[in-house]
Amino acid sequence: MLKTGVVIRGQAPEEKDFATDGKLGLPTKFIFGFQKKGIGERTRADGTFEKLGGDARDNWVYNHGHKGFNVSGSWVTIRNNHNERDYLKGGDDVYGLGGDWILTLDGNSRANAGGNGSISDNLSRAFDLSGKNLWVDGNFFNNVGSDPGNDGEGILCQKHGGTDLYSWAVTRNKHERGSGEKSYIGGWDVKVFGCLLAWNQTSGWVGQTKVSLSDSVDEAYVGNQAEKVNVAKNSATMIECPPTAPAAPRDVKAEIYGSDAVKISWSDASDTEIGFRVERSFDGKTWTALPGKTLRYRVAAINCDDNAAGASAPTPDLALRLP
Known about the structure:
single chain; 323 residues; ten-stranded parallel sheet; four-stranded antiparallel sheet; globular
């Protein structure tokens, strides 16, 4: 029986936080979305906890080319950001200064596209990300890519970022193509160990490309509205919604951890979930919480419906007192 858990420090997390199921016996049990105001923890191999985290949310960013968000870290939440963009096209008069200008590629001439013989998008991208244990949820972007240029990544992890893709949840993000490129959401030329891509919208593709079967582990790409889903050939990546509702996790426990944190653990009881969602309540009815109140927690094994059918019973009451 697989067991996993998380420590929530400081304020309570958002109502819907996600964790992969860890069924493949990876050394880390992947947990998503549990830090608030830049503070989080994860379990080391020896059972102790490591403080990590970051938080980028509720930002409105305008771009005419280049990147909207460039984020790297461990245990990072990137939520509810809006990247409004004008498409980067040579000769367009975006600022009322005339269109007598030429867009080159990465500062080089068209004859030497990208400086290395390849076509570039001039880094006209929305979210260029790297790191471990990222939750990327509810963000919006449009008009990525360039002319001259190419695809214009939407939400991207690539080898040039310096890390492979370890334990990401990318959920409910929306791309509007506008006058830009089709774009995509996922990984490029990276190893993938734990990834949930669910309920995203894009005119391009979602998933991973240039990844081998041996480097594609513990993935679910479901419920997306996209032109196609990319997976490693013959991989076990879940791309169809499970036919049955998952069973609720067992042995769900919540306990005070230190002076300002709650440690939550549970045992997996199903083979048909795409992940887990941790919820909290202070009255046992409405699953939302405030620090300093009496708290209850539950864990839900989720499928593509993302409902409460696989929710556990609430934990006993406890109080989180902030210093």
